[in-house]
């Protein structure tokens, strides 16, 4: 009887010991998976432990997201203008938009990645519907619509970048300031072209 009791005790101790080891392994695995967890930020994996802090306040993150959508819109609209515009001046302006906004959006993506802010890779449905409608326009009607759109969009973008200039993050502030100077040049040129299509 004593032997049976000792065997039972030994077996239960062994089972308890294995259970503890298993729990430790599970705990260790869970810790590793949390530390090794990755998040996609602008198409690139970022360690989970790093993605907890963006380094930007909410205003900075919102600014980058809005600027990204605005930049994408300018790029896509410029591509349509190069295909559908009649005026050589409008085509030239669209070419400048494509060059400058492609460069600005590349810089924005790099900054957003560094600050761990996820920016959109596509346009909201409403903006896409507008672009699809523009694809059906040609000639002088298109030219006027595109330039009027550029005036309105750039005036709004100037206001957005004025806010970006005030952000406390030094890198965001510097990028917003340098990009704003280019956007102001675009705005001036768009307004000059708009006078031709009144």
Automatic annotation (TrEMBL):
Gene3D superfamilies: 1.20.1260.10. PROSITE patterns: PROKAR_LIPOPROTEIN. Keywords: Signal. Residues 62-193 form the DUF4142 domain. Residues 1-18 form the signal peptide. It holds the Pfam family DUF4142. InterPro entries: DUF4142, Ferritin-like. This is DUF4142 domain-containing protein.
């Amino acid at each position: 009887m004593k032997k049976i009791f000792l065997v039972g005790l030994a077996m239960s101790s062994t089972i308890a010991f294995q259970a503890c080891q298993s729990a430790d392994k599970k705990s260790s695995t869970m810790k590793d998976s949390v530390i090794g967890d990755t998040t996609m930020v602008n198409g690139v994996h970022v360690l989970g432990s790093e993605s907890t802090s963006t380094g930007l306040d909410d205003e900075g993150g919102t600014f980058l997201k809005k600027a990204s959508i605005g930049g994408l819109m300018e790029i896509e609209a410029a591509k349509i203008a190069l295909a559908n515009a009649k005026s050589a001046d409008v085509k030239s302006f669209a070419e400048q938009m494509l060059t400058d906004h492609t460069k600005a959006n590349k810089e924005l993506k790099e900054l957003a990645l560094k600050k761990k802010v996820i920016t959109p890779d596509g346009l909201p449905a409403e903006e896409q519907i507008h672009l699809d409608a523009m694809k059906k326009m040609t000639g002088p009607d298109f030219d006027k619509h595109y330039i009027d759109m550029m005036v309105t969009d750039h005036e709004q973008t100037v206001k957005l970048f004025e806010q970006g200039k005030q952000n406390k993050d030094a890198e965001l502030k510097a990028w917003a300031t340098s990009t704003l100077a280019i956007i102001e040049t675009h705005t001036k040129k768009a307004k000059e072209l708009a006078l031709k299509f009144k």
